């Protein structure tokens, strides 16, 4: 008789299956390095959860290997989420326009994302990790850093990870009773027509401030008279709307001292275009007679008194529309017709010489030829009141000379455009025609880029993109302005332009023996710097910029 016994293996405790992070250590170390340099919008809690998923012990090796494969797309998506790159919503919304880019321009954009210094740094980090992982358990240090980051996130708003780095994540989401201070400002604008900024910069308070800003802007509008006086003097209003030109671009191109700027009577030093894309920028300008609206409301019907050119038409100004391009890309021409209130035909472009090809291969015409055609028009010669909207694409990213695939040098194009405008101004002076020229760029070119966006990328309306060189010049005056231009240093936007137009509607400024320039430029509407694209909002709060992406929390804009 034999005794048989059944032996049952006792399962090992889970800690026996601890395998560490393996290659994912490098993934997190790379993120820490980018965070230290200020290149990430890091989300500590999401990364901690992802790390816990990777560390959770699994008894079976097959499950462990399967987890690595599952983690790859999750890790990629999380990495993308931690960067400042456009989100899926933005890419989807811009997809049709990107499809219209030429292959050469797309290649140019891709190469801008290659930072050889950063690639070198990543290589050094990879070698260091491979070398050190032979002797030390890197996972222990990576986990410790991740826990530390999450602890820092809970310690207060906008906590800096490193002395020279950027905040680890969002500003605090709550601010107690302080938020009410901001919300209460919605009905009581402070001096300069701007809501108060007295509460701490928490996410709740910044949301309340944004709401109070738009509530305040809804109540503002410039007042146009029902009719002009009998002795009103006819003059032309020419609005030059230049794509891709900001003060930062002018400085980067070394053109701050160009003679063009001394030609103006009034120069705005802190004028906010409120967006970083052409269509919304043109709509905002054409609706300049009301306060600033949200991006969404740009594509809703506005009150009749908001449309600048419609207001001028009621006073006898005939509308004119000019472009140095065909206006087809992105439905630009359709947008300004549907949402800007400009319904007149586009001035004929037949016979104009293309000097550039745009990023989508369409022609960009010579600006001097377009402006000369305007001066030769019957309405100009006959001394009628006209209001002309002129949109220029000369400086847009990706423009190139015919027969050359490479993007034309921005500085050379800007230099040529400034020279042409300066010459055109001289011609206007000689003509003796009474003209008010308003130069208002759409947005900047992002020529230098920053930690959030590479050069040319404008998905986020940063201050360097939306602070545009807006200026005004009066021609044909009996008493022209003498000396340096009058600088407007208060935060301003399109309502200030509309207000200036209302102050000179009777045209008497052109016939006066002496012009009170201080009275003309004093107490202009001020507008807080709030800029918005479809999926990004940037505002200045207590002299610091903050950004909100895709409706998320606010974070300090990397400097």
Automatic annotation (TrEMBL):
Transmembrane domains' residue ranges: 34-56, 68-85, 113-132, 139-162
InterPro entries, A to Z: BcsG (IPR017744)
Phosphoprotein found in the keyword field: no
Superkingdom as given in the UniProt entry: Bacteria
Assigned keywords, A-Z: Membrane, Transmembrane, Transmembrane helix
NCBIfam families: cellulose_yhjU
Protein name: Cellulose synthase operon protein YhjU
Record organism: Kosakonia oryziphila
């Amino acid at each position: 008789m034999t005794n048989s016994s059944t032996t049952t293996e006792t399962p090992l405790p889970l800690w026996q299956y601890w395998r560490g992070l393996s290659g994912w250590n490098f993934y997190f170390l790379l993120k820490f390095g980018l965070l230290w340099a200020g290149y990430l919008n890091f989300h500590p809690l999401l990364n901690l959860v992802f790390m816990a998923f990777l560390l959770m012990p699994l008894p079976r090796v097959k499950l462990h290997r399967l987890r690595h494969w599952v983690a790859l797309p999750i890790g990629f998506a999380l990495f993308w989420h931690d960067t400042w790159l456009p989100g899926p919503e933005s890419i989807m919304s811009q997809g049709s326009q990107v499809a219209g880019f030429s292959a050469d321009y797309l290649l140019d954009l891709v190469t801008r994302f290659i930072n050889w210094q950063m690639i070198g740094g990543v290589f050094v980090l990879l070698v260091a990790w491979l070398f050190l992982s032979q002797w030390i358990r890197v996972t222990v240090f990576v986990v410790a850093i991740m826990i530390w980051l999450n602890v820092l996130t809970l310690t207060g708003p906008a906590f800096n990870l490193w002395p020279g780095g950027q905040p680890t994540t969002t500003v605090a989401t709550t601010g107690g009773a302080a938020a009410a201070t901001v919300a209460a400002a919605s009905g009581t604008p402070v001096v300069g027509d701007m809501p108060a900024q007295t509460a701490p910069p928490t996410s709740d308070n910044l949301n309340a401030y944004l709401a109070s800003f738009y509530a305040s802007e809804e109540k503002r509008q410039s007042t146009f008279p029902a009719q002009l006086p009998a002795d009103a003097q006819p003059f032309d209003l020419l609005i030059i709307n230049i794509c891709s030109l900001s003060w930062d671009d002018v400085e980067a191109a070394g053109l701050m001292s160009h003679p063009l700027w001394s030609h103006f009577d009034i120069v705005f030093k802190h004028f906010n275009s409120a967006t970083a894309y052409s269509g919304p920028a043109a709509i905002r300008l054409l609706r300049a007679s009301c306060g600033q609206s949200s991006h969404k409301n740009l594509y809703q019907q506005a009150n009749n008194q908001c449309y600048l050119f419609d207001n001028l038409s009621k006073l006898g100004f005939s509308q004119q529309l000019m472009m140095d391009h065909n206006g087809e890309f992105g439905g630009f021409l359709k947008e300004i017709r549907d949402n800007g209130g400009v319904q007149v035909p586009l001035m004929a472009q037949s016979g104009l010489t293309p000097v550039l090809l745009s990023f989508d291969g369409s022609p960009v015409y010579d600006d001097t030829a377009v402006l000369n055609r305007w001066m030769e028009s019957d309405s100009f010669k006959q001394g009628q009141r006209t209001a002309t909207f002129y949109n220029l694409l000369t400086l847009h990213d990706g423009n190139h000379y015919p027969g050359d695939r490479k993007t034309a040098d921005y500085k050379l194009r800007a230099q040529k455009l400034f020279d042409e405008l300066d010459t055109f101004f001289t011609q206007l002076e000689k003509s003796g025609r009474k003209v008010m020229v308003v130069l208002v760029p759409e947005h900047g070119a992002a020529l230098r880029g920053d930690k959030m966006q590479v050069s040319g990328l404008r998905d986020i309306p940063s201050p360097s993109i939306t602070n545009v060189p807006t200026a005004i010049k009066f021609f044909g005056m009996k008493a022209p302005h003498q000396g340096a231009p009058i600088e407007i240093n208060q935060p301003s936007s399109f309502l200030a332009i509309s207000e200036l137009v209302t102050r000179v509607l009777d045209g008497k400024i052109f016939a006066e023996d002496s012009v009170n320039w201080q009275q003309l430029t004093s107490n202009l509407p001020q507008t807080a710097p709030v800029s918005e694209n479809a999926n990004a909002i940037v505002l200045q709060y207590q002299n610091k910029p903050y950004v909100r992406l895709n409706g998320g929390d606010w974070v300090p804009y990397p400097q």
